[in-house]
Amino acid sequence: MNPEIDKFLNSAKQWQEEMEQLRMISLDCGLTEELKWGKPCYSFQNSNIVIIQPFKESCALMFFKGVLLEDPNDVLEKPGENSRVARRIPFTSVQEIVEMEPILKRYIFEAIEAEKAGLEVDLEEKPEPIPEELQKKLDENPALKTAFEELTPGRQRGYILYISDAKQSKTRERRVEKYIPKILDGKGLHDQ
Predict the structure, then answer these.
(1) Contacts of 129 (CB under 8 A, 6+ apart)
(2) How far apart are CA 53 and CA 37, in angstroms?
(3) Helices 142-150 and 169-184, axial angle in degrees (round to 10)
(4) Which of 77, 131, 135, 169 is the most buried (most CB within 10 A)?
(5) How far apart are CA 186 and CA 155, in angstroms?
């Protein structure tokens, strides 16, 4: 058990008992516990398997490569409309978690087996087009272009989707300007 996770759970304002239950299930599956992205994260041989996510309305156990899992119980859901790989299971009570423990363990063990087998998610190679406002800045600023290209595909996609989401060109330009420093720092849209 990682003392950083103890601190995290002790300072949690809600979902403390639920997160503790999810922690015990993850540890029972032989996963290594770390604090990543400010949340309890569980890995197998340095590959992330699941992360515990507290939200306002629920807490969730998110599988990093959830799209690879069989879901005979139909409990996995996309974390967001643009999610391609991750899947999560939300909870609103300890009782729900206790009742689902055998299913959760089966899914965790399946995720571990997928890592052992070296399974990768086959993402179609048709990335979203770069908005012209971002492309213009990348063309004008070689350092920005290099920094953007060095971001992970997921971080690049996050910026592309966020900037493209704006309906007006002026808004897209403002969004590009606002995030230039983060891109230059090698950070994703939601990184601290």
Answers:
(1) 160, 164
(2) 10
(3) 80
(4) 131
(5) 9
Under a CB-based contact definition with an 8 Å cutoff, are residues 61 and 91 in contact?
Answer: yes
Is residue 100 over pLDDT 70?
A: yes
**Whole-number Cα distances in Å, 119 to 91, 110, 114:** 28, 11, 5
Sign of CA dihedral 54, 55, 60, 62: negative
Among the listed residues 36, 24, 33, 164, the one whose alpha carbon sits nearest the alpha carbon of residue 101 = 24
What are the chain's domains? Answer: 3-116 (3.90.1150.200), 132-184 (no CATH)
Residues found in the chain: 192
**Contacts of residue 109, Cβ cutoff 8 Å, sequence gap at least 6:** 29
Span 175-187, average pLDDT? 92
In this model, does residue 126 exceed pLDDT 90?
no
Q: Which residues contact 158 (CB under 8 A, 6 or more apart)?
A: 188, 189, 190
pLDDT at 170 over 90: yes
Average pLDDT along the chain = 91
State which H helix or E strand residue 132 sits in: helix 132-140
The span from the CA of 56 to the CA of 172, in Å, is: 29
In a 3-state reduction of DSSP, which class is residue 186?
coil
